[in-house]
Design goal:
alpha/beta, FAD/NAD(P)-binding domain, D-Amino Acid Oxidase, Chain A, domain 2, 2 domains, eight-stranded mixed sheet, 10 helices, 27% helix
Length: 369
Amino acid sequence: MSFDVENIVIGAGVIGLAIARELSVAGKDVLVLEKNSHFGEETSSRNSEVIHAGIYYANDSLKAKFCVEGKALLYKYCTDYSVPHARIGKLIVATNKDELHILEGIKHKAENNGVHDLSFLTAQEAHAIEPALNCSGALLSPSTGIIDTHQYMLSLVGEIENSGNFIAYNAPFDSASAIENGFRVNSNGNEIKCKHLINAAGLDAQTVARKIEDLAPHFIPKQFLAKGSYFTMNAPSPFTHLIYPVPNTASLGIHVTLDMAGQIRFGPDQEWVETIDYEMDADRGDAFYDAIRKYYPLLPDDVLIPAYTGIRPKLQNASSGVKDFLISGQDHHGISGLVNLFGMESPGLTSSLSIAKYVCALLPSIQQN
């Protein structure tokens, strides 16, 4: 049986690009199918652009494993390929004394995940490095950083194309069926035969999976959508570190991030939605003021400006516990050469290079080489 291409990756978000790049540098041929007219137009361009340390995730989870491994890989990649980034550090702050014990639990969880560089700061020590900050104590995470996500994805695209591989834009995935030792894939009226099919479609992962013949429905988890809004302000940032309140059960709270130009961003909040809609509701900013003033009491009135929204593809709803990434290969669903990635939310950006290595190791012909 002859194949048109060995590997097809569905989705040119940061994780799909990282997988295609991993295959490319290994000398494999790969085609990326992207329904939009440009790479990274959805979740990958609508996030906080944070390189996470690996602090909050459940011990022995894929999120913890990939984040810690991926952080090291991503910092090295940024250095090697001159991708703009900065290891500016993060403060996780207790805004009252009752929250101090939460910091102890966070530090313990981080150490179990292999993150051993967190240090406690008193209120005075935190104030010394961030004079605008109000807190009763904090944890300093020096290995947390920021990245220019667009430049990172552009670098991945460059490696893919320099290897002679191709990204097809405006090329939605229509269907796939299993054939001898591979798949027949249909996109925009074109039929392509491949050995390996990798579904890295992000928000569309479940939709794509349902179009793969022979994949039983019970191997496709239900998806839930969490929309987050970000606000900025027309004033210099009062902070030089990222500022995160202690997390609650639902999210990491309204935190402070900075982009590579030093522009401050507040968010995201969390709104459970039924459909993908990036429209910004400026009224959501009203609730930001009280949340932000717990750690930044000098925030002036009427300064927050709507910035953008993003939507996370989650595997849990508002009332259920946090779910891990689900990377489903042959051992899970029984179809050789097929890998589905579900629930690729944070820390997907940080984890992208580590996820790519893991996924490629699941592919039969890659394992044999």
